[in-house]
Specification:
By secondary structure, the chain is α/β, with parallel strands linked by helices. It contains 25 helices and 23 strands. 34% of the residues are buried.
Length: 664
């Protein structure tokens, strides 16, 4: 940098050096030839005077030129701001508006000088990000127009930074994009859940009129949403509509569900419908998503809408209890298909969920006995049980056929391969099965479950028998065994295992006990069930009984009949004690639903129970759980206090949504 400065100075004053050299030469010449020397000196002085005058005049002209140029530049800058073709606003580093042009004034309409831009726009622009040049654009909506604010920062004076905001109007592009998205087609699979039961319970003379009324109501809803409809079966339809109408229905939480439920035309039971709606990138995606959503709606008990897009499932409705079907046609078909798969497999492995209960173990024992008599190698994977299941397994081990039936995880990983049929009972979520790794290596996977579905479920299954209206998986297995081998191999210990599972999930035939539940129980009773043995399975030891009473005593009422309590002590049977205490709390007057929180490894477990008026499944689904209307559970991270606050928030949201639906 110094070298450049020195060179510049030398270049600017080189004429001085030359004149000095010339004068010095003239002085030397005057010493030898005086006349010539004096003449040279005179010429040098004259040249010096002329050069000084010329240089002075040049600097004067240059200064005038720079002044004139500076004036023109400032004038052009000022004119460019005043005549800029798009809206422009200048703000200081605190967000105060210090200037805006005419185009911007047309947007604001009012005088906004020296006002905070966020207060004017009703936004929360991060001015500091603009000033620090971390972010130089922001999209806003103002007076029904959409703008992209592009920032240009001037920081020549550190204490007085200004930001120029250029308003790029993107309204037309955004509205065009919104119109494109709103006009995209979505596919809806619609079915009447209980069509057969409704017709059977409607007077014969009124059936044609009632069927026509249902048809008319569905077509009116489709016409209102400007869609097209095709009837696939007598109780199933395919509907195509624009996405805009789907969003309108979603904002209203699909009042069509209530409209159909309230339809009265001589029918003795309400009509419930299920809708599965697919929102994908193209029509094949829409169709695939609609089918998945429809299966999910049925798997959750019907009477609801499920929307599936590429990211998630969204649920509406589903607050009513499942309608029990009286026909066993599906059971017979499933029994035949299951028997075929068993006969084709080289070996069979049965698996339930972690911390297996009597329903999971009972269903596994029932299937184990039948499969073993088909001369197929069969095993039950279990490593985590509670005291009730241990009592049942100890009793089963007294019989020769059950010795060696139970295997742990390590043994199961050695047994299961491509030739293995893996039957999963009483669970549809892969993450909570006894050994999720087995699902990846088994040749065929069959799922038998009665829980209402949520977003997570076992994929790539060969056969799924899912009946959310049944009381328990043991009830389902009891019906299957009657068709697989006419129930010929149901020994008393097997009948007791199945009966115990039904008793546990129905809370001694109080909850979810339909006609088929009692038929299954009666069938098992004829097969040798000793009810005293069943009673012994459910006896609590003294410590568990004391803990249960302590939980009930500590319960408090939250809102609208919701009882909440905590299990303070952590034991080996923590979740079982919490579940039993939640059941016990339902016996208190004024309690419609109960929740018990208990500390388990990795977080807090919540057991939820209900008498039916409150849907505990919908509540606990909001925090990652699932189950049934009357019985559900969830596990969340955090401590007890945080978990309780999360639960209360989910309860509040549930009641708020329910209140909105009732108002509509």
């Amino acid at each position: 940098m110094k070298r450049k400065s020195y060179t510049s100075i030398t270049a600017n004053y080189s004429w001085v050096y030359l004149l000095v050299l010339f004068l010095f030469a003239c002085v030397l010449l005057a010493l030898r030839q005086f006349g010539l020397g004096i003449a040279g000196i005179a010429i040098g002085i004259l040249l010096t005077i002329v050069t000084v005058l010329v240089e002075t005049n040049r600097k004067k002209n240059l200064f005038e030129y720079v002044q004139q140029l500076s004036f023109h530049v400032h004038s052009m800058s000022r004119d460019s701001l005043l005549k800029f073709p798009m809206p422009l606003t200048i703000i200081d580093q605190n967000g105060r508006i210090i200037w805006y042009n005419k185009q911007c004034a047309e947007i604001f309409e009012d005088n906004i000088f020296d006002q905070d831009i966020n207060e004017v726009l009703g936004t929360d622009l991060d001015i500091e990000q603009f000033v620090n040049q971390v972010k130089l654009s922001a999209r806003i909506e103002y007076k029904k127009r959409y703008y992209n604010l592009m920032a240009n920062v001037s920081d020549e004076m550190p204490d007085n930074t200004t930001v120029i905001l250029y308003w790029v109007d993107e309204t037309e592009e955004i509205l065009m994009k919104q119109e494109y998205e709103n006009s995209r087609p979505v596919i809806c699979q619609l079915s009447i859940d209980n069509y057969d039961e409704i017709m059977q319970n409607t007077d014969e003379i009124q059936r044609p009129m009632f069927a026509a009324t249902i048809e008319k109501k569905i077509h009116e809803w489709v016409a209102k949403n400007k869609g097209i409809i095709r009837k696939m079966q007598r109780d199933k339809y395919t509907v195509i509509m624009e996405k805009r109408f789907l969003e309108e229905n979603a904002r209203g939480k699909f009042p069509f569900l209530n409209e159909m439920r309230d339809l009265q035309e001589g029918n003795k039971m309400p009509i419930t419908i299920s809708l599965g709606i697919g929102v994908g990138a193209d029509l094949p995606d829409n169709d695939s998503y609609a089918n998945s959503a429809f299966d999910m709606a049925l798997g959750r008990g019907g009477d609801q809408v499920v929307i599936k897009d590429r990211n998630k499932f969204t649920y509406f409705g589903g607050n009513s209890a499942e309608q029990e079907t009286h026909t066993r046609v599906k059971t017979r078909v499933m029994a035949y298909a299951l028997k075929q798969l068993i006969q084709q497999a080289e070996k069979v492995v049965l698996m339930g969920h972690k911390n297996a209960d009597l329903d999971a173990i009972g269903a596994a024992i029932g299937l184990y006995s039948s499969i073993r008599h088909m001369d197929k190698p069969v095993y039950i994977v279990t490593e985590t049980q509670n005291k009730s299941t241990l009592k049942l397994l100890e009793r089963a081990n007294r019989y020769e056929e059950f010795r060696g039936a139970l295997i742990d995880y390590e043994k199961a990983k050695e047994v299961v391969d491509d030739d293995t049929l893996l039957i999963v009972v009483d669970v549809y979520r892969a993450s909570i099965t006894e050994c999720p790794q087995l699902l990846e290596v088994a040749g065929d996977v069959v799922v038998l479950d009665h829980h209402r579905k949520s977003a997570e479920f076992i994929e790539d299954t060969t056969l799924v028998y899912h009946e959310p209206f049944t009381s328990s998986t043991c009830e389902m297995v009891t019906e299957l065994l009657q068709y697989i081998d006419d129930g010929a191999h149901i020994a008393p210990i097997v009948a007791e295992a199945l009966y115990a599972g039904i008793v546990m999930d129905t809370k001694n035939f109080v909850f979810k006990s339909g006609v088929r539940t009692f038929e299954a129980a009666a069938y098992l009773r004829r097969r040798g069930v000793d009810t005293l043995h069943i009673k012994q399975l459910f006896q609590d030891d003294r410590q568990v009984y004391i803990q249960k009473l302590a939980v009930v005593k500590a319960a408090f009422m939250y809102r609208d009949g919701i009882a909440i309590s905590r299990l303070k002590e952590k034991t080996e049977d923590t979740t079982m004690v919490a579940a039993v205490a939640a059941d016990e709390m339902l016996g208190m007057e004024g309690v419609a639903a109960s929740f018990v929180l208990s500390e388990v490894e990795g977080g807090i477990h919540i057991s939820g129970r209900s008498l039916g008026a409150v849907n505990v499944q919908v509540i606990l689904e909001r925090i990652g759980g699932g189950g049934h209307i009357t019985l559900a559970a969830a596990k969340i991270n955090g401590n007890m206090k945080q978990a309780e606050e999360t639960l209360k928030q989910a309860i509040d949201e549930y009641f708020d949504d329910t209140a909105e639906e009732e108002e509509e």
